[in-house]
Design brief:
Elements (H helix, E strand, L loop, with lengths): L7 E4 L18 H13 L4 E3 L8 H10 L7 E6 L1 E3 L5 E3 L3 H15 L4 E6 L8 H13 L3 E7 L3 H8 L6 E5 L6 H4 L2 H7 L3 E5 L33 H14 L3 H9 L5 E6 L3 H4 L10 H8 L1
Parallel strand pairs: 1-2, 1-10, 2-3, 3-6, 6-7, 7-8, 8-9, 9-10
Antiparallel strand pairs: 4-5
Helix pairs in contact: 1-2, 2-3, 3-4, 8-9
Amino acid sequence: MIGLRSRVGLGTAPLGSRVEGPLWWGPQDPRDAVGAVRAALDAGVDWIDTAPFYGWGRAEELVGRAVAGRRDEVRILTKCGTVRRSDGRVGEDASPASVRAGVWESLRRLGTDYVDVLQVHDPDPATPVEETWAAIAQLIAEGLVRAGGLSNHPVTLMERARAMAPVAVVQHQYSLLHRAPETDGVLDWCAAHDCAFLAWAPLASGFLTAGFNLAALAADDLRHRLPWAARDLTLLRGRIAAVAARHGVPPHRVALAWAARRPGTYAIAGARSPLEAADLSPLPHLTTADLTDLEQ
């Protein structure tokens, strides 16, 4: 384990929102973004998950600006391998040379001399995971990275990487609307190998929050293309709200607590303003009755 203290960490994909891509979540004021990071730290969140892919470095730059002078308060998790091709398209390049070059760029943007966890963003079909993992192990030996992780990798690749060197972190999409890690072996693998599991999109990109209004989003907002956009979530939101009322917390904290309810599991929550970031924790302890109500 890498010693994360807060059950929820700050996700920064929305902070990197830019209309020219690769991810557009609507306008993001840089001042609000920096304020959100600082508010999360003030609220007790002690880790941040970011990536070069989030605005092609924009999110990392904002995180670096926000944690200046507070680096010792936070663990920074970033990624490698997902790159912008010369034609502007998104591609995967987890070759050792790409990983090393990417780390140096991330360090520059983040304004730090090391990252706590470097995660391979997505599988690269052209590069054996063993080669990528050997490069990350070398970066750890050099002190530029403290630990390695895998994002969106199946158990077969997780096991191959672990045969080379420890895997400290695994992250996959996981929420009340997307429960694949329960059935594809990912959660069981993490529990068996003392590996932290990070749930990304535990709020289903906002669909599990109170007052979420898809119609109010810009027509080109990426959330219109998510599978939940075509579903009626009234009953599920009602169940979440009922559990939240029992605990005296806002509904989004219940959805986060559900995703981080197992030992060694954590939730990555996006926040785009200081107000949102200050309201990410603490998470309630869900009872057996709560879980029954949420999962019916």
